[in-house]
Fold this protein.
Amino acid sequence: MSDLDDLYQDIVLDHGNRPRNFRVMEAPDHEAEGYNPLCGDRIHLYLQVEDGVIADLSIQGSGCAISTASASLLTEVLRGKTEAEARELFDEVHTMITGDPTAGRSDAEVEQLGKLAALSGVRQFPARVKCATLVWHTLIKALDGDEAHARTE
Amino acid sequence: MTSATEVREERPERLDPEKIRRDFPALQQEVHGKPLVYLDSAATSQRPQVVIDAVRSFYEHDNANVHRGVHALSERATARYERVRQTACNFFHGNDAREFVFTKGTTESINLLAHSFVRPRLAKGDEILITQLEHHSNIVPWQLLCEETGAKLVVAPINDEGEVEMNRFEALLGDRTRFASVAHVSNALGTVNPVREMIRLAHTNDVPILIDGAQAVARMPVDFQELGCDFYALSSHKMCGPTGVGILWGRLPLLQAMRPYQGGGDMILSVSFDGTTYNEVPHRFEAGTPNIAGVIGMGAAFEYLSGIGMDRIRSYEEELLGYGVHRLMEVRGLRLVGNAIRKSGVLSFLLEGVHPHDVGTVLDREGVAVRAGHHCAQPVMERFGVAATVRASLGVYNNREDIDRLVTGLQRVTEMFRR
């Protein structure tokens, strides 16, 4: 059962049950909706950006523990980051979740991911990767101002 | 009650699930270190060794194209392929083997019928009647036709138990209804529709009707003559046969009046640039080299299921479903979705506070295969106000221990998410 415990770490269950920043934002600078047509997970992401720095984020929607926790963690981790830093983190998270498990990361790299490292267990569950990455694809859509919905297909 | 119903009420001899399980090689494995419990037969069934052997023996001994060669292999391949039409005719009690068109599966059967039978009959403002519990494959082909022709798709609603509201179904059959298409058994809820009554009502209104039998054919005896429908669509892979093959059955005069679906080889008698003469039914609808091995495997599946007896399978699965409902009720926070009085083979449910996908992942790690999602029936999910459910679906090879393992797995889910 150890891989299940890796997937559903306490921090994931906590954020899945009680997502942070779970509210509609009145006047966002950016917003996008992510939808996974396979399972019906739907996440709406709102962003406020001041001088290129993400000042506020919030989410709305419904999904499984993994997609909800991933979205909740994103709202915590990206606050105060620049747009460029947010995009870098997208790449980092994407590599962590989908990358070669044997590649190995330095302690410093994992450190930089902070709480997001709690999502690393998803890598052992290919069927759940899209749940974890949904909000991150939605973030890129929001930043790019793409009106099309983010999809994890 | 008719005599046919009385016969059914005599309980057939109980089948031996342990003996049947041994026929299915894929069930003899461990998943994540635990013996596999396969509860996803509504998505696709497992195949018995005899089906696998039939496909293999075709490729090893008789492999050639059908209806073409003069050589021995082609003759053997053609004979084995065409024999399945008669096997199907016996299995489903058709009138004539020519009524059985081989397709890729239920989806293609419905699309074929939409194109070749329904489309030429539609004008702007005409209506096609379906129900709210249909699979997407019995919704989208009709939506496409409606887009093309200006016809309207009319949907008979279901009640809180997941049963079609028959008074609404009857009322919606109107002057403009040109066609009706309904599921025999709902894939998402397991509801068994009162199809004989639906067929009777359609015919009272001079409306031809298709029954989508994808979920019914593995679970109960299906007799086309007794049903009295005009068309019936099914897939081999839901009933222990290979994937990529199925049947469109239709009454012969209706099929004979239909235009071709796809053009190509085998569906023609002669081709010239001045004009082409189409082949006879059913070959008119089987353009191109068909899934020969798949058809032969499907024939073996019919024979396998006949050998057990569809009456016995229905009776056994009803008993197992009853046991499943009973055991699932013991799970704290579990709510069944779909409580039709007549229900077959499907346990669709929600576990309070846990998303179906998370339930599915934990069960998988326990060796229990279920489906989590909308089951290609999003309107059904919407009707019940949910995005997804967990679906455990039964096959002839499941037993009580499988249900017990499901319940144990669900208890593990509960522990995990309520810690």
In short: The domain at 2-147 of chain A is CATH 3.90.1010.10 (Sufe protein. Chain: A). Residues 83-98 of chain A form the longest helix (16 residues). The two ends of chain A are 29 Å apart (CA to CA).
